[in-house]
Amino acid sequence: MILRLITTLGIALSFAVTAPQTARADAGDFLGGAVVGGVVGYAIGKDQQKKKTQRTTRTYRPSIPSTTQGAQTQTALNYFGYNAGRVDGQVGSGTRAAIERYQASMGYPINGYDFQPYQYDFLMQAYYWATNGGQATTQLAGQPLLMAYRQQQLSGSALAAAPQPQAEAAPVATSQEPEPVPDAGETTSASLPTLFSGGTARPSLANRCSAVMLQTSTNGGYTTLANMSDPDFALSEQFCLARSYAMARGEDLMQDIQGLTPDQIATQCDSFGEMLEPQVVSLSLNTKTEAETQMRKLALDSGLSPEDLAATSKVCLAMGYRQDNMDTAVGSALMLVAMGEPAYGELIGHHLREGFGVQERRDLAMQWYDASLSALDAGSEAVFLPSQADRPQLLRTAMTAAQ
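^ that's the sequence the OP posted. Answer follows.
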């Protein structure tokens, strides 16, 4: 299977970064061709970032803890017409004023120094929707476009919750009253064709997280240990929040990749996801240990260093979530765990619990949750909301209650 994939996709997998163009005949060469551009860009960007850190000291509000989140916030605010000024990632008075204008239009509490995560997440979900077809479909711009997204989410939630009308019972035919025969020109509803008959749509994690963020906004903020009443919803909130952090982290790395456009990066990450699809499928069939062992073997066969594969996986994880490509997202998360970053196993637990990209297996999800939280207890880096010290306990409490 791997050889067939390589033969079919080998030409499309070459990155723009120059490398000897030889025939690729094994998994190692395939992965090398698929990730070398991201790896080289990451190495260059990491060095540049290190120099920038040595030259400059910057201060950000706790609610926007990184340059990337600050810049993303400014970009989205400008896109929807709130005028945050120059996109530089530094949150000053201009950005805070734009945040307050956004809060006012959304009906949120108005305080430019208190930009809650649910407010940021909803803004970014709307921005991703708008820039991936929403604007072209609605032909709107600025704040009306943001309100169209909000109305779409409200309508979707209302439709999902609305009771379906009951069809009236058909009259029972008797021998004294024969059943009427429709005229030749009359068409019954039963004979009407439907394009969606028998079809199954793939669930969209992006749509799911948009709905979750809308409910979080209605609730006035994220679930905490003190107010948790619905453990399943609490886990969904944390899933979407972890997804947002993974996207921000990967997009930060993307900015430092040299010589590739975002579309080229997306193409290569799509191919990366195709290569990892068998490992993603196995997540619903195998234990955590078995799935991790299979991925580690593939990584070792590639001949690339764990650092290089991890850097590329972080970029492709972000791109997979941005494009709602679950093979790329889940495969990248699994690769990160296999390369020694167990905290990313939380994402796999969420996917198995909710069935996005894999078959729903809540029993297997618990293995991934437990392992990632145990790793945090042992001192592993917290990659999602590292400043929220009680988050592991929130996850544990929700996991136990949701079983």
